[in-house]
RNA sequence: GCUCCCGUAGUCUAGUCCGGCCAAGGAUUCGGCGCCUUCGACGCCGUAACCCGGGUUCAAAUCCCGGCGGGAGCACCA
């Protein structure tokens, strides 16, 4: 007896597991999400969300949302409306944070740290124009300020805080090594001066930390045990570690993953931002943004996004995945419980000569799941049929799915034709092209929002009248759709958003 | 140009740290068949990969060297 020894190979039929977190202690893990608040979360942020959340679950730890809302730049401004949008996105994504922090609330905390770094003799106040600073960095040239004494630096720092310098006139720089092989790492800026108005704290502060420095501080102050982030931020690791070493601090370890892009969604957040603001897009939930919100609108479940994202593990390769992979994940989740309905896009009215009276028939809600029940459908000509199919099968015999066969006239359908007469050929279930149909008698207009933002109009079966906003359905031979939240039952047309094939 | 990272089938991934059970597993896609009523699901079958060249070794996807290819960073942005 006993099971055969199949193979010692790891059972990879199950979903790939993320590797264990180094040094993680159950119940003690503290992680963070740090999106820049300039746009809704989108598919590119999903990896950050679910990898962090997965570890939080596994180790029963904490996950903080930390808004990286330092002052930014002219080009990269914080959008105050986005704070709520992001929090809402996290709820939609099924990744609620345990606590929320704003960097802009923490600015004074960075000042003493700056002093600590200065007192180690590892920083100086540089008054070079940005241009020159960059040039010197590239060539590895030291500017005169680099050799200033500790006292001079402290004095300069105090002057920065006191407002003696205008924006761009002075920065606090870390003294790394001008000969560092990585030019990007030479004497990076820690703190700078900005007069821009911050949406949350206004002009309360003039001296702002750079991202890396703020994290060197907050990853310690917030008690993070592990920092998980995209590998585009690896230089931040070095910076943080450099500062910790300088101050004799043991900081959390870093883990990374590569860039994840959806082939269909190469859009930049900034572009979406523009289109959302200008009203070209229908808000952040416009399918063209590929935001988390827009995916929810399309009936793509958070669980599908989670599985999709985690399937890539912590791989460091930069990848580009077709959306079809995400759709497959979602289909697996929703197909077994999703009711089928008829929807005829770009419909043409077709009379059927010699058709028997059928009245009202019953059809199953799902072809393989009788437990999902049945619905009543009126089966009486004339029928709405999809124009594209009528054109493709002109002169041929076709079958109205689940109903009857008919022969289409040979004539070509004029572009604006609205009526056609076909001939009944029988009810026998023959192997014929099958198309969806809706009897005019009980049809209801439907407007389907497509992924490119366009709207397709058509006729849906009468049973849609008893559907509710938020329902996910399959329009047979069209795809999975979700009825729009803004649709009010009892009104026409029914509003639906296309999900995926 | 400099720095770092990556390179397994069409796509993604497991395996690479600790060489042999990997003539390479899974998912998805694609093709065929079935389920006689979907361009969906399900079932079966099939196609298909270790970037290249050297080296070490009885043995290399796995270790070493050298190429090539791809990505990211080189902001007083995040």
Provide structural commentary.
There is one protein chain. By secondary structure, the protein is α/β, with parallel strands linked by helices. Among the domains are: 107-209, Glutamyl-tRNA Synthetase, Domain 3 (Glutamyl-tRNA Synthetase, domain 3), CATH 3.90.800; 346-439, Ribosomal Protein L25, Chain P, CATH 2.40.240; 441-500, Ribosomal Protein L25, Chain P, CATH 2.40.240. It is built from twelve helices and 27 strands. It has helices at residues 46-59, 82-93, 107-119, 130-139, 150-162, 211-221, 234-247, 269-278, 292-297, 302-310, 323-334, 387-392, and strands at residues 30-33, 62-67, 99-102, 123-126, 171-174, 189-193, 207-209, 227-230, 254-257, 260-262, 319-321, 339-341, 343-345, 347-353, 360-364, 374-378, 383-386, 397-400, 404-407, 419-426, 434-435, 438-439, 444-449, 455-460, 472-475, 479-483, 494-500. The strands form seven sheets. A seven-stranded mixed sheet has the order 12-25-26-27-23-24-13. A seven-stranded mixed sheet has the order 21-18-19-20-14-17-22. A four-stranded antiparallel sheet has the order 4-5-6-7. β2, α2 (82-93) and β3 (99-102) form a beta-alpha-beta unit. The longest helix is centred in the first third of the chain and has 14 residues, at 46-59. The two termini are 46 Å apart. The structure holds one RNA strand of 78 nucleotides.
């Amino acid at each position: 007896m006993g099971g055969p020894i199949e193979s010692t190979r790891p059972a990879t039929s199950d979903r790939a597991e993320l590797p264990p977190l180094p040094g993680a202690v159950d119940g003690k893990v503290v992680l963070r999400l740090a999106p820049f608040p300039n746009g809704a979360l989108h598919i590119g942020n999903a990896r950050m969300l679910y990898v962090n959340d997965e570890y939080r679950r596994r180790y029963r730890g904490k996950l903080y949302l930390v808004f990286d809302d330092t002052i930014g730049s002219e080009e990269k401004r914080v959008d105050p409306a986005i704070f709520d949008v992001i929090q809402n996105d996290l709820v939609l994504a099924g990744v609620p944070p345990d606590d929320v922090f704003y960097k802009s609330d923490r600015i004074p905390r960075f000042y003493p740290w700056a002093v600590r770094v200065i007192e180690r003799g590892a920083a100086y106040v540089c008054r070079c124009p940005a241009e020159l600073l960059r040039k010197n960095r590239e060539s590895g040239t030291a500017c005169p300020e680099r050799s200033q004494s500790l006292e001079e630096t402290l004095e300069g720092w105090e002057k920065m805080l006191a407002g003696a310098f205008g924006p761009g006139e002075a920065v606090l720089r870390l003294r790394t090594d001008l000969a560092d092989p990585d030019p990007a790492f030479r004497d990076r800026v820690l703190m700078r001066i900005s007069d821009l108005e911050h949406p949350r704290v206004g002009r309360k502060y003039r001296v702002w930390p750079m991202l890396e420095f703020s994290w060197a501080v907050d990853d310690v102050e917030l008690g993070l045990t592990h920092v998980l982030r995209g590998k585009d931020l690896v230089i931040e690791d070095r910076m943080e570690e450099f500062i910790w070493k300088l101050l004799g601090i043991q900081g959390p370890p870093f883990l990374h993953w590569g860039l994840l892009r959806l082939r269909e969604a190469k859009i930049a957040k900034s572009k979406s931002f523009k289109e959302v603001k200008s009203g070209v897009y229908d808000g952040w939930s416009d399918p063209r943004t590929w935001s988390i919100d827009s995916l929810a609108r399309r009936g793509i479940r958070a669980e599908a996004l989670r599985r999709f994202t985690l399937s890539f593990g912590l791989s460091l390769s930069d990848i580009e995945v077709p959306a079809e992979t995400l759709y497959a994940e979602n289909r697996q989740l929703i197909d077994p419980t999703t009711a089928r309905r008829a929807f005829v896009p770009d419909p043409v009215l077709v009379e059927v000569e010699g058709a028997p009276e059928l009245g009202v028939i019953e059809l199953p809600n799902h072809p393989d799941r009788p437990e999902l029940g049945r619905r009543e459908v009126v089966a009486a000509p004339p029928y709405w049929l999809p124009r594209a199919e009528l054109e493709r099968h002109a002169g041929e015999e076709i079958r109205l799915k689940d109903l009857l066969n008919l022969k289409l006239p040979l004539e070509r359908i004029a572009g604006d034709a609205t009526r056609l007469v076909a001939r009944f050929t029988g009810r026998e279930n023959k192997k014929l092209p099958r198309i969806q149909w809706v009897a005019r008698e009980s049809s209801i207009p439907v407007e389907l929002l497509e992924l490119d933002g366009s709207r397709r109009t058509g006729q849906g079966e009468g049973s849609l009248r008893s559907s509710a906003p938020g329902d996910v359905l399959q329009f047979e031979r069209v795809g999975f759709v979700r009825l729009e939240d803004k649709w009010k039952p009892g009104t026409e047309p029914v509003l639906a958003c296309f999900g995926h094939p």
